[in-house]
Amino acid sequence: MSQPTGLVRTGIGPIDRDHLHLWDLFQTLLEKDLREDEALAVLKELLAYTRYHFGREERLMQEIGLTGEPRQAHIHEHAIFVKRVENFLELLQNRAAPKTTGLQAMVEEIQKMHQLPTLPQLDPAKRVVAFLVDWILNHTSGMDVELANHTEAAKGPLANQDFSFLESDRPAAS
Predict the structure, then answer these.
(1) Can you tell me the distance from the alpha carbon of 110 to that of 25, in angstroms, rounded to the nearest whole number?
(2) How many angstroms from the chain centroid is the CA of residue 56?
(3) Architecture of domain 13-157 in this structure
(4) Which of 39, 66, 168, 173 could form a disulfide with 61 if both were Cys (CB 3.0 to 4.6 A apart)?
(5) Is the pTM here over 0.85, yes or no?
(6) Which residues contact residue 158 at a Cβ distance below 8 angstroms, ignoring those fewer than 6 apart?
(7) What gap in Å lies between CA 154 and CA 156, rounded to an integer?
(8) What is the 3-state secondary structure (H, E, C) of the chain?
(9) Domain limits of the chain?
(10) Exposed, middle or buried by CB within 10 Å (0-12, 13-18, 19+), for 96?
């Protein structure tokens, strides 16, 4: 996996690897012409891996003793993102007439059902992925860099730290 433009490295190996894996899932949704069932499978994997990744970040917060507003704001941001992805998945799975026309058609149908605004410069499926990409770029360059700074302040240089405690409970690849 190469480092995507705009995706900031935190210096915390397991966290950075997670970000790259999430990026790869976004790219799969964006670049491949997926059938509806394939797109749903990727979105489910994205949700499962996101929960796993957020759990790792929250274990790191516990390990370094991060408390108060920085911790609560970070966890709150995680909860909002998970809820948005869950809601999107629920909408996709509960459509009245399932079709096999792919992610773009699924998103267009949801937009019509819920009278959501459209952005003409991107097809609907790419708008969903654009939201995901925008979120990870902003989250990693903001909250996750702050987490790395707190980690370094609490435990010393990141390069000298053992993050093996973050390596357990990895979800199975689907």
Answers:
(1) 22
(2) 13
(3) Up-down Bundle (1.20)
(4) 66
(5) no
(6) 10, 11, 12, 148, 151, 152
(7) 6
(8) CCCCCCCCCCCCHHHHHHHHHHHHHHHHHHHCCCCHHHHHHHHHHHHHHHHHHHHHHHHHHHHHCCCHHHHHHHHHHHHHHHHHHHHHHHHHHCCCCCCCCCHHHHHHHHHHHCCCCCCCCCCHHHHHHHHHHHHHHHHHHHHHHHHHHHHHHHHCCHHHCCCHHHCCCCCCCC
(9) 13-157
(10) exposed
Longest dimension (CA), the chain: 55
- Amino acid found at 76: H
Q: Tens digits of per-residue pLDDT, 146-172?
A: 999 999 999 999 999 999 989 876 666
Find where tokens 């799969």 sit.
28
The one-letter amino acid code at 64 reads: I
Distance CA 31, CA 129 (A): 10
Tokens of 139: 């989250």
Cα distances (angstroms) measured from residue 149 to each of 62, 143, 153, 156? 15, 10, 6, 10
